[in-house]
């Protein structure tokens, strides 16, 4: 286990050092270019007796009556007792710049006491955004991965039979507001905010598109660069008027940049996972770590009285206590880089749970020059 952990950490460190440069579009997103969440309320029909109980789900009955009224069928005053209908909530994500007539995937989940949506069909359901406008309509056959079956003495359920998905189940009726051609400047938001990464992104963009080498003493003059870091989270990029916005974003996104990452150690005590960043360093410390095992064994014995005596049979407790302690050697660990740190910890023969305890102790002593995140 120790060797596998050390090998995995060294492999990650080697990959980070060998291919540290990545594309700008992999470490950032364009502000405003995002999905929009849609939600709607609809009915699923065609279920095999696994729908809502209308007595327990009155909103399902009301929705059925409203739907039938719109179709010209009057059911007011007539009690409905169908079990093949279920009320559902329909959710979807409207992609940025989605055009009218394009299709998007939708998710369907039951609202009432239906036991399964398998075999059902979603009828026409408007999908609204937070502004109350209808941006898409959904309809189609449900794809349910879970199932449930029951008999008189036993039942079985696998997955979630009351949730389903319809690939390409909604048609976009209204495009999301905003046009790419109207943007004269873009804001790149970093996925992992960092001042150094933001500055490097701005420098790479200016080196690629700047015709005149700029200096930071003339930011307000005519040689102002087209990209400038605003804070640790965002970089403002001015679009050249002679370049198409989509092509310009594609060119910017493909530029390589080497993101900077903070020195951080993440440990998961539940699974014993330890992830150490390549910038983590440990000041020279002496570590001793030993395992103390206390084993208590109960072996009760039965004591029989002598024949023809007035004694009683009793249980006599017998307890054996054993103490084992291994390790306890004092080792010196100094970690100028990730390779040396992992080799030093692995040389001590510690398990992942031991490494977690040692890292926490090193952090408390002030020798761990990194942020320790315990999950």
Question: Can you walk through the features of this model?
Answer:
There is one protein chain. The chain has 375 residues and is of the alpha+beta class. 22% of the residues lie in helices and 37% in strands. It has three domains: 36-172, no CATH class; 179-257, Alpha-Beta Plaits (2-Layer Sandwich), CATH 3.30.70; 263-374, no CATH class. It has helices spanning 2-18, 24-27, 58-70, 195-209, 245-253, 338-347, 352-365, and strands at 22-23, 28-30, 36-45, 85-94, 103-110, 121-128, 134-141, 147-150, 155-158, 163-172, 185-190, 227-229, 234-238, 256-257, 264-268, 273-276, 281-298, 301-303, 314-316, 319-335, 368-369, 371-374. The longest helix has 17 residues, at 2-18. 21% of the residues are buried. This is Flagellar P-ring protein.
Entry summary:
Assembles around the rod to form the L-ring and probably protects the motor/basal body from shearing forces during rotation. It contains seven helices and 22 strands.
Largest sheet: 6 strands, antiparallel, barrel
Strand content is 35-45%
The radius of gyration is: 33 Å
Biggest β-sheet: strands ordered side by side in the sheet: 3-4-5-10-7-6
Q: Uncertain regions: pLDDT < 50 for 5+ in a row?
A: 1-19, 211-221
Whole-Å distance between the termini?
Answer: 21 Å
Number of domains: 3
Count of extended strands: 22
| Envelope shape | flat
What's the pLDDT, averaged over the residues?
Answer: 77
Quaternary form: single chain
What structural class should be given to the helix and strand makeup? alpha+beta
What fraction, in percent, of the residue positions are helical?
A: 10-25%
The number of helical elements comes to 7
Helix and strand run: HEHEEHEEEEEEEEHEEHEEEEEEEHHEE
